[in-house]
Structure formats: C-alpha cells, structure tokens
Amino acid sequence: MKEKNAAKKWYSWYFEFNLLYRILIGLVLGVVLGLVLKEKILWIQPLGDLFVRLLKMIMMPIILSTLIVGASSVSPANLGKVGLRVIVLYLLTSAAAVLLGLGMGAVFRPSAELTGAAEAAGKAAQAPKLSQTLLNIVPTSIMQVIVNETILAVIFVALLVGLGISYLRVSGDERKEKAAATLYNFFDGIAEVMMLIIKGIMQYAPIGVLSLVSVVFATNGPKVVGSLGVVTLACFVGYALHIIIVYLGLVKFYAKLPIGRYFRDAKDPFITAFVTRSSNGTLPVTMEAAESLGVPKDIYSFSLPLGATINMDGTAIYQGVCATFIALSVWGHGFSLSQMGLIIVTATLASIGTAGVPGAGAIMLLLVLDSVGLKVEAGSLVAGAYAMILGIDALLDMGRTALNVSGDLAVTTIVARRMKELDQSKWNEGDI
Ligand code: ASP
User: Fold this and answer.
1) Is the minimum distance from the CB of 211 to ligand 1 under 6 angstroms?
2) C-alpha gyration radius of the chain
3) For residue range 359-384, what is the model confidence (pLDDT) as tens digits?
C-alpha cells in the first residue's frame, strides 16, 4: 500500500503542473533536442505519431456529437440568425485570409532553385477534385461517411440531425418532444464523454509536441533559414497581420469590445492550438474561453465545433503563400489575376474541407495547386517544391492552427455581441 502511494507521488507532479506550461516546455525542449541531437533523436518519432493518431481517432465522434448537440441547442427561431451570421463571417474572413496569403507571397516572393534531387524527392500525390469535393458534401450513405471519415459530409449530416432534433423538441407533440429529448440527451452524453477523452489525450500533448517538434528541427534545422525561411516568414507575417487587422479590428471596431480584456481569455486557446496543431484538440479550451467571455452556450456550442472544422484562416493564408512559393519556384513567375481569383475560391473551399488535425492543410494544398495547373506528380518540379514545404509543415502548422482557432473564437464572440447576447457582467467598465 505504501509503495503504491509512493508510485503515485512519483508521477503526480506531472498532472498537477499547469498543462499549458507543460506543453510549452515540451515545445522548447523539442526545439533544443532536435537542433542538438539531430538524427540521434529521430527514434522519438512514434511518440509524436501516437499523439496525432489519438487526435485523429477522436476527431470524428467529437465533431459529430458536439455539432448535433450544438445545432439542437439553438432554438429554431435563432438558428437561422446565428447560423447565417457565423457562416458568412467564417467565409468572408477565410477569403480575406487567402488574399492576404497571396499578398504575402507577392511581397516576400519566396522561391527555391530546384535541383534534380529536389525533383526526385517529390512523390506522386493525388489532389481531390473540386467539383467532387463539393458533391461529396451530400453523402449517399450516412454510415459510410462516418466510417470513411469524410469530414464535410459528416458536418452536413450532423447539422441536419441537430436541426431535426431542435425542431422536434418544440413541436408541440408530446411523443415527438420526448423522443427528441431522448436523442438530445444521448448525443449530449456522447459529447461529454468525448470531451473527457480529449482532455485525457491533452495530458499526453507535452510529450507528443516534444516529439513532433524535435523531429522537425532534427531534419530541417539549418534549412529552415534558407528559402524555406522566407516561406516561414511570409506565413507568420501574414498570420500576425490577419490577427491584428481582421480579428482584433473586428472585435474592437465592429463588436466594440475592449481588446485587452478579450485577449486575456483568448490567449489560452491560441497557445494551446499553437503547440498542439489541432483545432479539434483545442476545442475544450476554446469553449472554456468563450464561456469566460460571456458567450451563451447555445451560440458557442454550435459555432465553435463548426468553426474548428470549417473556419481555417491560418490554413488559407498558408495556402496562398505556399502556392506562390511553388509557382515562383517552378514557373519563375507568379499568378495572373484570374488564377488568383481561382485560388481564392479553391483555397477558401479547401480550408472549409480541412480537418482540424495536425497536417491536414498540407493535403488540401494539393487541391489549390491543382486548380491552377500545378500538378504534384512523381518526379515533377512541383512535387519537389511541395516536398520542401512538407518538410517544414509542422512549423507552419503551429501558426496556422493558432490563427484558425482564434478566428473561431473571435467570430463567435462578435456574433454573440452583435446579437446582444453577450453576458455583460463578464466585462468591466474600465477594461481596455
Ligand atoms: N492543423 C490545422 C488545424 O487543426 C489544420 C491544418 O493543417 O491546416 O486547424
């Protein structure tokens, strides 16, 4: 018995220490270990892969259950108003983000001189077709999309089911109301269990992050400084500008809220997203922040899970910058105006279709490249340039995920404020 207590004490410090600090320490240690130990640290990779697998495992049930509960928590009368505002703001900010990404590409003009070696590094990769991506939103079999993890189709189904429950709950027919309440409680139960599981997974995040980051720095350390350094810089300047101009601008001038007070709560999901590289993984933290900002549960339980999947401004900026990098490296010149238009449309749609898990944006980049004729085929220059980007994807993913998540929270807060639903008791007179 005594021994058991001693064993408990041995690891309990880990759980008692603030999770955010633990993850940050994992991040810094990862950078240091990667740079110092180089390939000697590569054995650690499975620990990072485990973290990504855990997040991917939880993604589908968490999106399905939280969205059904979210959509059925909003009263039918309100759903149209909330849903429309949230979706319009999500789309507008994403389109602005792609434009900013292309702008950053034009300013920084990142490009690489591609050699045969870089060419060979590229592997064949299949880009999803745009029309098919859109059509696939409506599934032919509900069970199949859940099994195949077709994210947009799952969102579509979840919203329909949620809407159905929300209507039946106030239908006036006692039997139907009871049935709807049972279903609501069922999905609510699943959502709560999923939240609990994801909180458990996050306890592993410090180790996962350490491993993922150390592998990136071990394999790319010095390279990140060269042409890829310019890509990284262009992305991060874009991320920063988008936060300042779009989000802080919208929060301050459109929603007229004190920015300092807003950031006090918004920083936790921001940092968590930065280090975990997963919008879905960050969902519980984002929800807590929305709660502290005074957003009513029926708004955030709908808009945050939705935003974690369909609103990806960081991913959109990244796609604008990386598409420019690849065009400059392969063609030697940037995009025409019509190509830019095409990229804005595809990248906005691609960011909607990107799952909120690490690395998903890099897959959707294929769709954007394909739309302007930059096909990633085995041995091609495009594949070489794409492979270079993939090498530093983890780094770019940190910034873009932080931005994706802060966008969800900002839009949610702004919509609540504009609908006069924000709990003002959480905001003080003297807040700046
Ligand atoms: N990791 C991002 C997210 O979870 C998606 C991406 O890879 O762009 O929001």
Assistant:
1) no
2) 22
3) 888 888 887 888 888 887 766 788 77
Tens-place pLDDT, residues 102-115? 999 999 998 876 65
Ligand 1 pocket test, pick from 392, 397, 403 with the greatest ligand atom count within 8 Å of Cβ, gives 397
**Domain locations in the chain as residue ranges:** 19-426
Q: CA–CA separation, 290 vs 293, rounded Å?
A: 5
Per-residue pLDDT at 152: 72
Q: Are the C-beta atoms of 429 and 258 separated by less than 8 Å?
A: no
> Measured in angstroms, how far is the CA atom of residue 280 from the centroid of ligand 1?
9
Q: Ligand 1: does its nearest atom lie under 6 Å from the Cβ of 404? A: yes
The rounded distance, in Å, linking the Cα atoms of 396 and 402 is: 10
Mutation choice for ligand 1 from 351, 401, 408, CB with most ligand atoms inside 8 A: 401
Return the CATH class of domain 19-426: mainly alpha
Residue 283 backbone phi and psi in degrees, to 5: -45, -50
Q: What is the mean pLDDT of the chain?
A: 85
- pTM of the complete model beyond 0.85: no
How many C-beta neighbours within 10 Å does residue 344 have? 22
Place of tokens 């999905």: 187
Helices (H), 221-296: 227-242, 249, 259-276, 279-292
Number of H helices, E strands in the chain: 19, 0
